Each structure stands twice: as C-alpha cells, then as structure tokens.
C-alpha cells in the first residue's frame, strides 16, 4: 500500500490501481473506452488515464484519475509480480478526485475506519459504485467474456471439433448471426475505441475481445470464437472457424486497440 495526495490535498491510502486506455480498461464498466469514460465523467482522451483507488484518513472511498498512465502501468506491473511500488502521482497529473469506487474491492486500509462513501457536498457528483453484477446483464456478460479470455485453454477443451460455422445457412442461431454481422460491420465502419481489443496469446496468435450492444465475443486469431448474449443468461456459444471466421478475425485484429 502507498499514499498519495488527492485533489483536495487529503492523504489517500492507495489500495489498487487500474489502467483506463482504449486498449485496457475494466470491461465490467462498459463496452468501449468512451462509454467507460462517460460513466466516470472523464473526457475520452486517446492517451487515457490511470485510476487510483484508495481511502482518505477518515476511511472514505476515493478514485483519483491521473494522466500519468506510465506511472500507473509500472505500479500495476510491479504489484502483479509481487513487488512493492510506491504509487504517488504528482499533483499536476491529477485530473479528478471522484468520490466512491467504480470497482468492488475486498481490501481496506488498516488503522482507519471501514470503507464508506464520503459525505456528499453541494454540486459534487454522486459517489461511484460498481455495476450490479449479481444478475445477468451487460456487466456479467462482459465479465464472462473476460473469464473466457483468461481461461482460454480450459474453455477450449470443452468444445469438440464439431462446432457450428459462421457462414450463411450454416449457423442456425439468430443471435450469433447478428453478432457476426455486426462484427463484420466494424471492419467497414470502425466502432468507438475499445470495442475491439487485441492482446498477446500463445505463439504468434492474438486474443481478441470484441463487444457490441448486447453481446461480447472472445476469439483467438488462430482458433475459434465464443459469443455471449445479454438475452441468454449464462450461455456461451462456440463459433467454428469455417470459411469466414479467419478473415474476419484478421481484419478485426488489424483495427484493434493494442496495449503499448
């Protein structure tokens, strides 16, 4: 844990931090980068932000948005490796100190009151709160897609070679056909930043995360895809490569946002 100074000069005990860029952002918060920024009241600058979540001396929850993306990226990388890192963004890099947390945290700072929202001030925005992921909906659908991307091998083992293809007349599921049509549309008319993201995978392949209104897709450029739909709680639809998927995934990867 480290400390920094929030926009009102109150000490902040840092609990965690996440990146908010077109290529990397908490999927649970939205289908694309501009949507997530809008929910936080931030301008969707291409350079992105780092979000620092912590508590002040009274235990109140605060989220500090900083323009120092590199600093936050270094801190997250160090913490992921089990190393200590003192995350203290400079005052001149802080663009907002927002009450509340947009993500659920199971940790708290020792020696101060339990986490709670700060007392509301006149004209201040309502405290941030995590999306309701208790029941199936957009947040749960995106979290499900994240889990498939993280556990690709385990999910892939559950699918035999006889999965349905994408081609017209070969895929009877209406929802999956709609997803594929909208994904093809992204190739000709690029969507908002972050709707298509590409990250490293084994070998020379890439993992794609593609989102749209009411749907999410996870795919490997050298393999199949999985589709999740808002209207079908908990269902995961595997989509075989067939004659169309390889070219579609290649085209999506070319327009995808990638981590620096």
């Amino acid at each position: 844990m480290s400390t920094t100074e929030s926009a009102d000069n109150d000490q902040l005990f840092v609990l965690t931090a996440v990146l908010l860029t077109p290529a990397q952002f908490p999927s649970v918060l939205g289908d694309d980068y501009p949507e997530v920024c809008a929910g936080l009241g931030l301008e969707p600058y291409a350079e992105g932000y780092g979000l620092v979540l912590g508590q002040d001396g009274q235990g109140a929850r605060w989220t500090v948005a900083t323009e120092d993306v590199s600093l936050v990226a270094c801190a997250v990388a160090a913490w992921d490796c089990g190393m200590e890192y003192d995350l203290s963004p400079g005052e001149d890099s802080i663009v907002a100190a927002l009450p509340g947390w947009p993500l659920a945290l199971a940790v708290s700072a020792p020696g101060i009151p339990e986490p709670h929202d700060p007392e509301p001030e006149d004209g201040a925005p309502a405290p941030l709160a995590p999306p309701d992921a208790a029941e199936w909906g957009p947040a749960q659908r995106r979290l499900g897609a994240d889990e498939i991307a993280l556990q690709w091998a385990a999910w892939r083992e559950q699918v035999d070679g006889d999965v349905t293809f994408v081609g017209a007349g070969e895929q009877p599921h209406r929802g999956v056909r709609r997803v594929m049509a909208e994904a093809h549309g992204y190739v000709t008319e690029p969507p908002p930043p972050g709707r298509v993201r590409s990250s490293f995978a084994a070998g020379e392949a890439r993992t794609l995360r593609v989102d749209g209104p009411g749907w999410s897709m996870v795919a490997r450029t050298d393999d199949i895809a999985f589709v999740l739909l808002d209207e079908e709680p908990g269902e995961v639809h595997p989509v075989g490569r067939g004659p169309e998927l390889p070219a579609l995934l290649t085209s999506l990867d070319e327009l995808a946002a990638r981590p620096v």
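The chain has two domains: 2-99, 138-255. The longest strand covers residues 11-20.
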